[in-house]
Design a protein that fits this description.
CATH topology: Rossmann fold
Number of domains: 1
Helix content: 25-40%
Number of strands: 12
Order of helices and strands: EHEHEEEHEEHEEHEHEHEH
CATH architecture: 3-Layer(aba) Sandwich
Largest sheet: 8 strands, mixed
Number of helices: 8
Strand content: 15-25%
CATH superfamily: NAD(P)-binding Rossmann-like Domain
Distance between the termini: 34 Å
Strand order of the largest sheet: 4-3-2-1-5-6-8-11
Radius of gyration: 19 Å
């Protein structure tokens, strides 16, 4: 197949390599000319593609002549209002309709679910009034309504691996919430799951994607510190007041997918 990857980042780049190794024709995008040259040197066909939120770049129309279009771009909520990312997605939808894309995978996040001290599932009722991430939720809705082709939405939890180590972010900090269950996924499993969706033709679905085990944050942070030799948090929240959610992954497990790293306490890291 010809597979286009919008966003050759922390997940998109190794995904491109994995797909190429399977014999697929892969083309991807980046937002900087410097990165474009680096990717070309690594053998990845790349186009310059920026969304401000209107499209800019060069040759990016080639991205929209694909059997599968994989969209993974951060919503940029720190720099932009929540309306910005849906506007970016609206630009992509216009390009989809002008091109010949057959199927779409959109990467969302489990942050769309509210923190209500409960287990969150794909069929939970969600709307713009209760979602924790209106930018992603509205982008999902735009694609469902307007993309005009089979669509699957993947809601990733916290993506970890290599130098993305949760305990390191909280090393030495005080009053850290330690009681909530974690909703993490190891990068290798995330890439395998995307390939699984493509191979098994799992279209017109929404899937949560997190490791199936949910230890407490405190247990993960302490395990990271012990394994890698840095300090754990100095203190944990008491009383335990921070609200939480536990993301259910049963729907994806029912497709037959097997996680290589089901327990976030045992994720391997390399700095």
């Amino acid at each position: 197949m010809k597979i286009s990857i919008i966003g050759l980042g922390w997940i998109g780049k190794p995904l491109a390599g994995a797909l190429k190794s399977q014999g697929h024709q892969v083309i991807g995008s980046t937002t900087s000319r410097e990165k474009m040259q680096e990717l070309a040197n690594e053998g990845l066909e790349t186009r310059l593609f920026q969304l401000y939120p209107e499209p800019q770049g060069s040759g990016y129309e080639d991205l929209f002549t694909a059997d599968i279009l994989y969209i993974n771009i951060p919503p940029g909520r720190r720099k932009h209002p929540d309306a910005f990312h849906p506007q970016q997605i609206a630009s992509i939808i216009k390009l989809i309709k002008e091109g010949s894309v057959r199927k779409v995978i959109y990467v969302s996040a489990t942050s769309v679910y509210p923190n209500q001290n409960q287990t969150a599932r794909e069929d939970d009722p969600l709307d713009g009034g209760i979602t924790e991430n209106p930018a992603l939720f509205e982008a999902e809705q735009l694609l469902w309504t307007n993309s005009g082709c089979p669509l699957t939405v993947i809601r990733f939890g916290g993506l970890l691996g290599d130098n993305r180590i949760p305990g390191k972010y909280f090393s030495g900090k005080e009053n850290v919430p330690g009681h909530p269950p974690v909703n993490y996924i190891y990068r290798d499993d995330a890439i395998r799951a995307i390939q699984w969706v493509m191979e098994k033709e799992l279209w017109n679905e929404t899937f949560n994607l997190v490791a199936p085990e949910h230890p407490k944050k405190k247990d993960v942070y302490e395990a990271n510190a012990k394994l890698l030799g840095f300090s754990p948090p100095s203190s944990y929240e008491s009383p335990e007041v921070t609200s939480w959610k536990e993301i259910c992954v049963d729907k994806f497990l029912a497709t037959g997918f097997k996680f290589h790293y089901p327990d976030p306490i045992s994720f391997p890291y390399g700095e």
